[in-house]
Amino acid sequence: MALKQHLDDKVRFDQQVDNSKSYVLPFIEKTKPITKGTTVFEVGTAEGGVLLPFIERGCYCVGVDLAPERIDLANHFLEKEVAEGKVTFILQNIYEESFLKRFKNYFDIIILKDVIEHVPEQAKFVAYLKLFLKPGGQIFFGFPPWYMPFGGHQQICRTKWVSKLPYYHILPRFMYRGILKMAGEHPIIIKELMEIKDTQITIEYFEKIAKENNLRILNKQHYLINPIYKYKFGLQPRNQWAPLSWIPYFRDFVTTCVYYTVGE
């Protein structure tokens, strides 16, 4: 069964705000000062809640998304901040030349929270993101490794038993699709889950992409229990046991979320 935040826009927005204030902003601030005038860019901004704590710190923020309904919600929930010129929400593909021309070398911080796992051609994408950074700028990535119990995002399913079934997203594509069809999932949800399977990302592949793009890992945190699970399941966040986070590949199966900041 879909979780409440998948059905209620305001609940989802409020969770984004609290998660950003409690975990994302403090993590970024360990390697990058967040002060008045800091420019922040969120790719895949959805309802815009991640940006509110940065706005409250005096940052100027830009959020971009490809879903018009999400941009409409962001403009609604942050109507006052938009009117005051503290944040701008844009419905546009960042690969468009006009977007690059407008924001090249513009941002101190770029945020991708639960986004990179949805992006095709991730190595090319990360290389492109660098064009938007000021010298000394940093990029934050937060994502669930593909092989973790719910790395396929199957929790968005409307059928209770398939939304709570772990690890079956790593089955061959035809078997995964077959289970979803058998459960009676909506074709739109099946399509989204298949797209995520196509763009899956592991800890090892992410670190490889960073290295290939001459991006240094400035800070990282692997979580046994994802901070967002506090809202979804009432579970308190818990860092991954350090020795497990050092074991390549195995760590992907037992780490529900990773945070990284990278920079040149």
Secondary-structure blueprint of this entry?
Elements: H1 4-7, H2 9-29, E1 39-43, H3 52-56, E2 60-65, H4 68-77, H5 79-83, E3 87-91, H6 97-103, E4 107-113, H7 122-129, E5 133-143, H8 160-163, H9 173-182, H10 187-198, H11 203-212, E6 216-225, H12 229-232, E7 238-239, H13 242-245, H14 250-254, E8 257-263
Parallel strand pairs: 1-2, 1-4, 2-3, 4-5
Antiparallel strand pairs: 5-8, 6-7, 6-8
Helix pairs in contact: 9-10
Provide the residue-averaged pLDDT: 95
The CATH class assignment of the largest domain is Alpha Beta
- Per DSSP, the total helix count is 14
Main β-sheet: number of strands, strand sense, barrel status? 8 strands, mixed
> Percentage of helical residues?
40-55%
CATH architecture of the largest domain: 3-Layer(aba) Sandwich
Count of structural domains: 2
Which H/E pattern describes the elements?
Answer: HHEHEHHEHEHEHHHHEHEHHE
Q: The CATH topology of the largest domain is what?
A: Rossmann fold
Low-pLDDT runs of 5+ residues are: none
CATH superfamily of the largest domain: Vaccinia Virus protein VP39
| N- and C-termini, Cα separation | 43 Å
> If strands are numbered along the chain, what order do they take across the biggest sheet?
3-2-1-4-5-8-6-7
